[in-house]
Structure formats: C-alpha cells, structure tokens
Amino acid sequence: MMEKVKVYADRMSQPARAVLIFCRVNGIDFEEIKVDLSKRQHLSPEFREVNPLQKVPAIAHGTLNLSESHAILVYLASAFPGIADHWYPTDVSRRAKINSVLDWQHSNLRHGAVNYVVNTVLGPALGRPLNPKAAAEAEKVLSSSLSKLEHIWLNGDGPFLLGGFQPSIADLSLVCELMQLEVLDEKDRNRILSPYKKVLRWIEDTRTATNPHFEEMHNVLYRAKKKFQQERSRVAKTGTEPSNKLGGHSKM
Amino acid sequence: MMEKVKVYADRMSQPARAVLIFCRVNGIDFEEIKVDLSKRQHLSPEFREVNPLQKVPAIAHGTLNLSESHAILVYLASAFPGIADHWYPTDVSRRAKINSVLDWQHSNLRHGAVNYVVNTVLGPALGRPLNPKAAAEAEKVLSSSLSKLEHIWLNGDGPFLLGGFQPSIADLSLVCELMQLEVLDEKDRNRILSPYKKVLRWIEDTRTATNPHFEEMHNVLYRAKKKFQQERSRVAKTGTEPSNKLGGHSKM
Fold this sequence. Notes:
Two copies of one chain form a homodimer. By secondary structure, chain A is of the alpha+beta class.
C-alpha cells in the first residue's frame, strides 16, 4: 500500500488547486494541510521544514518533500499505480509535448495571468497600490498567450491541449491558471477571454471532465469573486476611492 | 539506429547552448541548424513550420517537433539509449527533485538573469533604452535566486544540485543560464556573483564535467563580452553617451 501523501495548500493558490483536483479525480489517498497565505503561514518555521522555498503547493510523501506544482503533478502521475495514461502519457513523444506546454506556461500564461490579476483586482485587496502600466503590460502577455493557446496548443482533433481526447496534467494546470481570472471585473474578464472561443470551450470541457472536484476546489474563488464585486459596487456608490482605482487598466 | 536530431539554435541563446552541450557530451547524432536571432530568422516562415512559437532552441526528430529547452533535454535524455542515468535519473523521487529545480528556474533564476542582462548590457546593444528601475528589480530576483541556489539547491553532499556527484540536466540548464552574466561589466558580475561561493564552484565543476564542449559552445559569448567591453571603454574615453548609461543600476 502506498503511504498517504500530505498536500500543503491554500485553495486561493491556482497551482495548489490543480494539485488538489488531480488527487481527488484520481482517488489518491492524501491529506490536505492548509497553509493560510493570508496569515503568512507559508513563512512559518514548520512549513519551512517541508518547503524551504516557502511556497504552496508542496507535498510530503515518505522521505520525499517536493515543491513546484508541475513537478508534483508529474510525480503523482508517475509514482501512483492506476493513474490513467492520458494524464501523463508514457509515450515519450506525447509526454515531451506535454512537458513543452507546461514549460511554456511559466513565462507566458502564468506570467500574464498572475501579473494582471495582482495589478488590478488583487492589488487593492492586498493593500497595494494599483499599477495600470504593469497591468497593461501583463494584459499584453496574457492576450498573446491566449492567442497561442487558441491557435497552436488547442489546434488539434480533440477538445484538449495537443489534440487530446482526454485531459492531461497540462490541461488541468493551464485551466486552473486561467480560472483565477474569475475574480476580475466581469467586463475585463470578457474583454480578455471572449475572443478565444476554443479556450472558453476547453475551460468548460476540463471543468466537466474533473467535476465535481473542480467546482468544489474553486468554491473559495467564487466566494472571493463575490466579495470583490461587492467591494466594487460599494466604491462605485460611495465614491470612497479615486475613480481610476478600478478602471485604470481601461486606459490601454 | 536512431534518426538524426535537428537542433535549431543560436549559440547566443543560453537554453540553446544547454541543448547543444548536452548533445555533444552524450554523443547524440545531431545536426545544428543556425537560426540567427539578430537576423530575425526565428520569425521566418520556414522556422515557423518547425516551431510555431518562433523561439530557439527547438528540435525536430522524426515526426516530433519540440520546443522549450527543459522539455527538449528531458526528451533527449529519455529517448536516446545509453545516456548515463545521472543526467535524468530513472528513480522517481530523484527525477521529481530535478523537475522541481527546473520548474523553479523559470520564474526565479531565468527571470532575474535575463531581465538584468537585457536591462543593462544588452539593451543598448539592441538599441533599446536602459531601464535602471527594471534592472534593479531584476537584480533583486537574481540575488534572491542565487541565495536559494547557494543555501537550498546546492546544500548537499556532492558538488552538483541536490547533492549530486555528477551533473544532471538541471545543472547544465541552470549553469548555462548564469553564464550569460559573463557579458556584464566585470564589477557588476562580481558584485552579483561573488557572495555565492558554492555557486561559483558549481559553475566551474559543471564546466569541467562538460568540457571541451562547454567552452566551445560559449566561445560566441566570450567574443560578445569582449565587444561589449571595448564599447564600454570607448564610451568611457570619448564620453559619447550619457554618463548614467552604464552605471544606472548602481543607484539601487
């Protein structure tokens, strides 16, 4: 019998959600250990023992401590028996292409999405000043990444990345990345995503393929979205903040 | 017999150098096809057929076209017979740790090193304005990454990453990343690197373990370094450029 995996996660983190969903969908025996980022628990001495890089997600499995969500997904798909091959195919060429998409994600989709969200909605929530110039730059990276997703990575026979007919760890990882855009103002999210029809369909297909776990793990995000919306209406009604605070990135 | 690999590369690109050195060291039968970035050959329709993302390095092997240097190194180490196990160990935990370092490289060491070089030495060479603020931010990321290399990733028994006694693809990839700092002004390079004694030793150990190929593939960089130095002395002597142009990032 395999030892139980400890998954250190905050569900507000998109790569943490990807790892949790993967474990659930594949019936991996794991314990979810909350590392509350808002309480700065990732900086605690206890968590430092698990991951000296002080980031979530991280896992502990037997003597192995591992960080970086892609490496974790690859490990789980390889080390556990009975994980369906489509998640991380054993065929060396197919696996290579999945690795390639995952590597591409770092400096493209992740870079764009994270920086856009941080410099628009999340900034004020974290008490940081809005940075419309950084948001504009991030949107450029994000839109270019979405275009490549639509025209290159999703340009195959099946509904998933690289023409797959079933999802791989890359589908899960990239879709979770994009899901963070849920917290944006609706019109910003639509402006950014709506030109990419295949991408929108692919998000739905990945959601369907991994439900009910996908929705459960994203509940915290939907709650955050609601909170941000209420805050925006409050600001719009009472005018307690400078008018460019939430509309700054519309200047692009 | 394995089919010959086509490696599309410009030796001025650090991930391209990593792939070329790996092929040479491991006796992989390959053909190097130059994609001259300075002539914008990566944007040509011919290269687009090989890599629609229009970046080097890329490889073509049989029916497989592959981009992203990490995915390429993993593929070469897995698909070719006779590659020594230390490059990409078959042990699932050891392999997981190597994947983790490679993933970490993207948003940390690569992000810091590339942005620092582009916003100091390379900017003017490419006809772009210097950006001391961006250089300062990049140096922060770079220094933090070097500290993690020194105290976490190189904190093992052997001289290589994760305590290895022989190099892995992660050693090669990360050392090639750092080698681009060669083109910096000597005092900047020393200021940034000299606090990290293990890192400095590890660069030398990786160089030694992969020579003479390591030096051969870096010759183009040493020539570029000389050119930048000459340009700096010319500027210093003739004062043809604003005095903050090369010293801008000392403001941090």
